[in-house]
UniProtKB/TrEMBL annotation:
Keyword Iron in annotation: yes
Domain of life: Bacteria
Position of the signal peptide: none
Protein name (record): DUF521 domain-containing protein
Stretches assigned to the Phosphomevalonate dehydratase large subunit-like domain: 6-411
GO molecular function: lyase activity
Keyword field: Iron, Lyase
Length: 436
């Protein structure tokens, strides 16, 4: 019998002892050792579909592909179908020059083979590539209290915070092993204690703050801790409308990328905060007040990595994480309106709006909408902008974005929403128009 510090069920112990094959035993041993490292006393059953972070066939992760092959050759599949992060490339929607295309093929040369592996192990369908798997159009929306083992940081923080599901921010590889076993180690955000807040965030801004900037400020301050946010309901209301969910999605992604937040509570808005209120605050919590000046201070701290600070962007990316349906429609209307104000019909640079494949299809399959967007120099894409920027040739370009996640992990330059629309339409941002 293989020893473990965990309290395993007879079925789990039998798997660990190799009674269901050596490969499944290796998977169980990996998950058990992972759980033990974080003090987990047991495993719990995963409830609902999994979501994987690794969506790209990069040539540099050969050991990962070998593990996938070993699982497949053993005849294993995930207990539930799963979704996965966005594809790294989509040439039709995001045109690149021939040299950039060549480099993409070199960087992501295993993409086709890797997607075959994903399908063999239980990928939901060909439209399952998105970081916002929880959107209703995609359908991988966990229920409140559901135990999961997700790994994509922006999806983890949304599932925990806005949906009330329970998942730790797991690593790539561990996510697929947990999905095959249908088990997750019980620690961290899966426990009641792990969901207590150790920071109280007081929002004291004069108007609704920019979601990306607010999330950045929170993440930089609390890092991996759980924040309990007060005062934000003055601007959001108390209902989880598509607009509010979009705000929380973008705010959460910024907390996770600029810090390592995997769960936040918003007073009178998110489900656990509605139920428990400030009882979610742990003893000895710390307080951080955010006003207009604090947001400006955080914004001013961002480095600009363009070689020419006055360059007209080569491209603008909106949608990291992927836009929901409300946001996509709103951005199209917003850009169109500003173009009309300036007497223009076309943006100064290509604009890529990234969204989930199921949402993209609703727009791209309509010939009239597609023609309108093409005429405006706008494309709807399903790629991950971060993967686009992983191409070293693309990373040299002056790329504009309103995403704090993309800014953090790439050379893209951050602009607030009003600024980036002005930039798209005129090629510059007028001074004095900066707004949070």
């Amino acid at each position: 019998m293989t020893d473990s510090k965990m309290n395993l069920t007879p079925e789990e112990q039998a798997i660990l002892d190799g009674k269901q094959g050596s490969v499944l035993a290796k998977a169980m041993k990996s998950v058990v050792l992972y759980g033990e490292a974080f003090g987990a006393g047991k495993l719990v059953d995963i409830v609902g579909d999994q979501h994987m972070v690794t969506s790209f066939g990069a040539n540099t992760i050969k050991p990962y592909f070998s593990m996938m092959d070993e699982l497949i050759h053993a005849g294993l599949k995930t207990r539930h179908p799963f979704t996965v992060d966005p594809r790294p490339i989509e040439y039709e929607a995001v045109n690149v020059n021939p040299l950039q295309k060549l480099v993409n093929k070199l960087v992501f040369g295993k993409q086709a083979d890797y997607e075959k592996q994903l399908k063999a192990l239980g990928l939901r369908n060909g439209n399952a590539f998105t970081c916002t798997c929880y959107l209703p159009e995609v359908g991988n929306t966990p229920k409140k209290g559901a135990m999961l083992a997700w790994s994509e940081s922006s999806a983890v923080v949304f599932a925990n915070s806005v949906l009330g599901a329970r998942t730790n921010r797991n690593s790539s590889g561990i996510d697929i092993l947990c999905a095959i076993l249908g088990k997750a180690p019980f620690f961290g955000f899966l426990t009641d204690e792990g969901r207590q807040a150790t920071w109280k965030i007081e929002i004291k801004t004069s108007k609704r703050p920019n979601a990306q900037l607010l999330g950045s400020a929170i993440g930089l301050k609390v890092m991996e801790a759980v924040p309990y946010i007060t005062g934000l309901d003055r601007f959001l209301g108390k209902e989880l409308t598509p607009e509010v969910e979009a705000f929380l999605k973008d705010m959460g992604a910024a907390t996770a990328s600029n810090g390592a937040v995997g769960l936040y509570h918003v007073e009178n808005v998110t489900p656990e905060a509605k139920e428990s209120g400030d009882r979610l605050l742990a003893k000895g919590y710390r307080t951080y007040a955010i006003d207009d000046a604090e947001l400006e201070r955080v914004r001013a701290s961002y480095p600009v990595l363009w070689s020419n600070l006055n360059a007209v962007p080569r491209r603008a990316f909106i949608g990291c994480p992927h836009l929901n349906h409300y946001q996509l429609q709103n951005w199209i209307e917003r850009i169109s309106g500003v173009l009309k104000e300036h007497g223009l019909t076309r943006t100064k640079m290509p604009v890529a709006l990234s969204t989930a494949p199921d949402i993209a299809d609703l727009f791209r399959n309509d010939p009239a909408i597609r023609a309108k967007l093409t005429a405006m120099n706008i494309s709807i894409t399903t790629i991950c902008p971060l993967m686009y920027m992983n191409n070293p040739l693309c990373a040299r370009e002056p790329i504009a974005t309103n995403s704090n996640k993309l800014r953090t992990y790439s050379t893209a330059r951050f602009f607030l929403d009003d600024e980036i629309v002005e930039l798209m339409c005129t090629g510059s941002v007028r001074q004095g128009e900066k707004t949070a």
